[in-house]
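The instructor's notes for this session suggest beginning with a concrete chain rather than abstract definitions. Hand out the sequence below and ask the class to guess, before any prediction is shown, which regions might be ordered.
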Amino acid sequence: MNSMLFGGGAKVKIIIQNSSDIPIYQQIYEQIKEEILSGKITQGEVLPSIRQLSRELKVSVITTTRAYTDLENEGYIMIVQGKGCFVKELNPDILENKIMSDIETHFIEIWKCAKILKKTDEEILDIIKILMEDLNNE
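After discussion, reveal the predicted structure:
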């Protein structure tokens, strides 16, 4: 397991698990993307260079290049040759799609768990309503 800290205000830790079934470039991609979406890495912030990141994480330059290229292709970062890699302003559509995807993923898990307990759709909705009321009252 290799890790690297970076970031402006908040330090961001990238953790690579070599024993994971998830490819290393994807682990890097997912962790940086989550840090951008959560606001821990902000617009305009400079990311470590591809070479620096590969050296710190002890992975190949090809691996970090793939992670950064995927982040750039999806609109999270901008790679400027000779200047560095910068976090782009978040497109509201990207943010909304990401959050909706997270909601769907979590709801599917809730639904599966409730079905294991043989809960009806109405019971699942009642549980969700109770939880929402509790959260709104906090």
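Then share the key points. The mean pLDDT is 89. The radius of gyration is 19 Å.
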